[in-house]
Amino acid sequence: MTLNKFSRIYTQDDSLPASQAMLIGAGLSDADLRKPFVGICSTGFEGNTCNMHLDGLANEVKRGVAAQGLVGLRFNTIGVSDGITNGNAGMRYSLVSREIIADSIEAMAGAHYYDALACVVGCDKNMPGALIAMARLNRPALMVYGGTIRGGEFKGQQLNIVSCFEAYGKKVNGQISEEDYQGIIHHACPGPGACGGMYTANTMAAAIETLGLTVPASSSLPAESPAKLQECLATGAYLRRLLELDLKPRDILTREAFENALVVITVLGGSTNAVLHLIAIAHAAGVKLTMEDFQAVSNRVPVLADLKPSGQYLMEDLSKLGGVPAVQRTLLDYGLLQGDLLTVTGRTLAENLADVRPLGPGQNLLRPLSNPIKADGHIQMLYGNLASRGAVAKITGKEGLRFEGPAIVFNSEEELNEGIRHHKIKAGQVVVIRYVGPKGGPGMPEMLKPTSAIIGAGLGDKVALVTDGRFSGGTHGFVIGHVCPEAYDGGGIALVQNGDWVVIDTANNTIDIQLSEYELEARRAAWRRPPLPARQGVLLKYIRTVSDASHGCITDLLEEAYVPEPALRPAGR
């Protein structure tokens, strides 16, 4: 069997002597030129805890690859820190970075004809970016998750990154001293690893492990654990097996695998960002996945895990109980997962879980089916005149199922943050944050800073938040994001005015402004599109190419696959 069927184009073709000369100049031997080439991509960089250790893990992967008689060739791509950029203009680049990561991995592996691919990733957009590239290339590949961070502690209080955002709200409202505020900042992130709750990074890692594109337990092994290093070293053997089987991502990323992933993120109470990312990954794999598919799973699958942000436990706590494999085995026994699906081990999910013990009595992190945290899923799709193409709600049940009240409208996150600082937000209001969508932001930034500040101010259970932007996986409360069409495209959210009565009914999946169609049409006729929020560079390219949130904010959607709303009048001079 030929394992180097791609790289041999460069290494075995006599008409490409320059290619071979450069590979030899890079340190490869004649023997190496006859081996399969494995591209080892790291999103490591020194500037944040999620990614600071990834280059070291990638080096361990390279050692494991070499031990299997393969040639590992390391390269890097970017990683934008959501934690650092949240609450400022840098967050506009976060979702954009998913496309840059996917494009750059595809370009490197495609241009250099790597036979297999291993992606060592950490932060939120790293993972879907890597999976999109793997699905496009469709060569033997797997993902290595950098692992979760340890929890912090200050004055007996358990901390994580969201503690910092909520501490700001407490500080603004005079509830904590400057000394304690600084204490929280200095103790929240005690080392490397992705943000510790069931936030977007851990949500996507658990989803991708369930899809079958990581080895078992990758998503729940802590970043600093010896087991994480062992996982990296073992990667070479898995990659060789994938090459021998010619088992490729699209063989694994089936419709049924995505359904499994939706079940796991629902049970774990995962981030709403999974809606964007899994739709985008499915698109790259040639699988049709829609918002309705998420709703169908939410209709039949409960929330069982008491994980942060709305619960009390962190991913490191789950790791001590057996990690995501223990959750998967429990769900397999419940009949909620399909076990006959292939994974990167070369075995099925059920075979991987054969010796794993399910989670039962003696722990409080995962409840039994008979006593769920919420009887149906927390991710709910809402439709109405405020979101005719849909919106995504994160409702754990602790917030209630219905909220109505007068709107208070902000045309940017900065406006809202100023409103919070000047105590403009009152109990009972529906806070609307608009012009922060994929185009209007641009980049659909997360609204973690304002939502955390509102929670810190004691209003988390007293207001609802509606936005055409996104929410961090760390957000909790009565929140609705991904409103589509976005305000920049003249959707219903662009027409809301202060004082309008907004009704959000998650039991019936509706979100409406209580206005007549005549009034809405009059406002629509008077509406003018604002100027472009970016004039050049990657943000302008993104505005010009990005699909709406209901289609996953992808940038390679064929025109015939996307039917937009009727054209809206542009702004006059």
Structure description:
The protein has 573 residues and is α/β, with parallel strands linked by helices. The chain is 38% helix and 13% strand. The chain is built from 21 helices and 14 strands. The strands form three sheets. Strands 7-8-12-11-10-9-13-14 form an eight-stranded mixed sheet. Strands 2-1-3-4 form a four-stranded parallel sheet, with helices on both faces. β13 and β14 form a beta hairpin. α3 crosses α10 (226-245) and α6 (126-137) runs parallel beside α13. It is globular, with a radius of gyration of 24 Å. Residues 563-573 have low confidence and may be disordered.
N-C termini distance? 66 Å
- Major sheet, described briefly? 8 strands, mixed
Biggest β-sheet: strands ordered side by side in the sheet: 7-8-12-11-10-9-13-14
Count of runs of 4 or more consecutive helical residues? 21
The percentage of residues in β strands lies in 5-15%
Shape: globular
Give the % helix.
25-40%
- Structural class from helices and strands? alpha/beta
Gyration radius from CA atoms, angstroms: 24 Å
Low-confidence stretches: 563-573
What is the arithmetic mean of pLDDT?
94
Count of strand segments: 14
